[in-house]
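Consortium newsletter contribution from the modelling node. Members have asked for a concrete example of what our holo predictions look like. Here is one, prepared for the nicotinamide-adenine-dinucleotide complex that several groups have been discussing at recent meetings.
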Amino acid sequence: MEPLIHVRGKVALVTGAAKGIGAACAATLARHGASVVVADIDEQGGRAVAGAIVSEGGIAAFMRLDVTDEAQWQSTVNAVVDRYGGLDVLVNNAGIAVVHTLLETSLAEWRRVHAVNLDSVFIGTRCAVELMRPGGRSGRGGSIINLSSVGGLIGAEGLTSYCSAKGGVRLFTKAVAVECGRAGYGIRVNSVHPGNTDTPMFRQELEDMRSKGAVASTEEALKFYMDMQVLPEIGQPQDIAAMVLFLASDAARFITGAEFVVDGGLTAQ
Ligand SMILES: NC(=O)c1ccc[n+]([C@@H]2O[C@H](COP(=O)([O-])OP(=O)(O)OC[C@H]3O[C@@H](n4cnc5c(N)ncnc54)[C@H](O)[C@@H]3O)[C@@H](O)[C@H]2O)c1
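And here is the predicted structure:
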């Protein structure tokens, strides 16, 4: 019997896929049958991720995309359709975290965090919907998955601009899901909310805590994050990729405008 969760025959574009959660999403979607475009500003890392997928027998290509640049988005999605004949899955994963209190945050920094974490999701989603809707260049509907955070659900100290942007991703996702559903576009739009996940971004946060003297060692920083949760371990990129795979697949055909928390119980308390 065919497995319920697969993405065979689908074309997926994953942003911020040169490392961390994005790289795991790209590899997982490819392993489950999708042709995957690995998009990132990090060319070396992105090419390595695409190369590893191909050497495992999957289908992947790297495309350079700065998610804050509207013109690059247009040319990238068009290049995806030229190369693979359509676009079925967009994973808006690229993001940055800047740990500063409100009083430490400049307007320029606030705008940068919103540009990379929220404006990018707006531009990418608009490009994808234009393509995926009936009559668009791809025209066969699709699934858009936006990476928010537990920081898009609850407040966190030192993350005012990040929480604002990620909270924006959460409600933007719902509003687009409503529009696409009502318009009969065949496009589902959902958000995923990771908790502490062991990626280069997370490791940098541990290092920042140590260097600022908030903790004595990386181990103490890890314990600090672990103590926030119910489950006694830090999440792995693969844990988030599993949720993304499910939402990308037709097993999630009745799910839109919903939020999926993958956080080891952090927000359950
Ligand atoms: N790691 C966590 O604990 C955690 C928790 C909650 C949410 N998230 C979210 O998950 C997503 C992935 O996080 P991660 O931990 O894997 O991050 P990461 O920093 O490890 O990797 C992010 C990737 O995005 C790319 N990127 C950054 N700016 C870009 C731009 N302008 N255009 C294109 N690519 C760009 C980077 O080059 C990098 O490859 C982010 O949206 C993040 O906010 C992560």
